[in-house]
Amino acid sequence: MALFGRKPVDFVIAGLGNPGREYEKTRHNTGFMALDYISGRLNAPRFGLKHMALASRCSAFGHNVLLLKPLTYMNASGSSVADALAYYRLSPAELIVIYDDISLDIGRLRIRLKGSDGGHNGIKSIISCLGTDSFARIKVGVGGKPHPDYDLADWVLSKFTAAELKIIGDDFERIYGAVGCLVNGDAEGAMGKYNG
Questions:
Q1: Cβ–Cβ under 8 Å, residues 133 and 97
Q2: Cα distance between residue 177 and residue 96, in whole Å
Q3: Which of 42, 52, 137, 167 could cross-link with 80 by S-S, CB 3.0 to 4.6 Å?
Q4: Which of 69-107 are b and which e, b meaning 16 or more Cβ less than 10 Å from the residue's Cβ?
Q5: 8-state DSSP, 113
Q6: Secondary structure of 117-181 in HEC code, one letter for each residue
Q7: Averaged over 87-112, what is the pLDDT?
Q8: Cα–Cα distance measured from residue 190 to residue 192, given in angstroms and rounded to the nearest whole number
Q9: How far is CA 194 from CA 77, 120, 138, 139, in A?
Q10: How many CA atoms lie within 13 A of 126 on its CB side?
């Protein structure tokens, strides 16, 4: 239900990952996992199929938001995100993307308002479909490859250990707090409090 006098959706919050049970609890599905946590914290309605994604509209931090988990597989995430933004007539400035980052140690977050894809295929797809790199992103550290010869695809599609899952689980509350800052226009506050 939209708040009186507001758009049906003020922000799209997209968590990136791959659909299918075989990808559950893998490093590349950290965005999906974070969105599931956020959905629970917001008591959001069940996810339904829309915009080539699992989507749920709810109220968050005084705004109407769409929680979005693209089902297009990571490399085509941009199609789903662009479709949702177009449907609600939103700009990239009203988008927040949550995803895994192998350049950050587990337990670290990095919030940015723009930047390159950093080699992440999901972000590469979003930048390509939107025609800009100016959108907020919350990078979630999942740790680097254990040694240089380790295949990157095998690494990001590997499952977290039980100890790593506990650390990642602790990150989700911080991600939730960062989302609250970002939707309320306090990007500096989000970066100051949650980066690192």
A1: no
A2: 13
A3: 52
A4: bbbbbbebbbbbbbbbbeebebebebbbbbbbbbebebb
A5: S
A6: CCCCHHHHHHHHHHCCCCCEEEEEECCCCCCCCCCHHHHHCCECCHHHHHHHHHHHHHHHHHHHH
A7: 97
A8: 6
A9: 25, 21, 10, 11
A10: 33
Catalytic residue positions, numbered:
28
Q: 43: helix, coil or strand? A: coil
Q: What CA–CA distance (Å, rounded) separates 99 from 35?
A: 10
111 pLDDT more than 80: yes
**Whole-number percent of the chain with pLDDT over 70:** 97
Write the single-letter amino acid at 190: A
Q: Which amino acid is at 144?
A: G
What are the tens digits of pLDDT across the range 138-151? 999 999 998 888 99
Partners of 54 in the beta sheet?
Answer: 49, 69
Residue 7 carries which side chain, given as an amino acid letter? K
Longest CA span, the chain: 56
Q: In what order do the strands lie in the sheet with 109-112?
A: 48-50, 53-60, 63-70, 11-15, 95-101, 136-141, 109-112
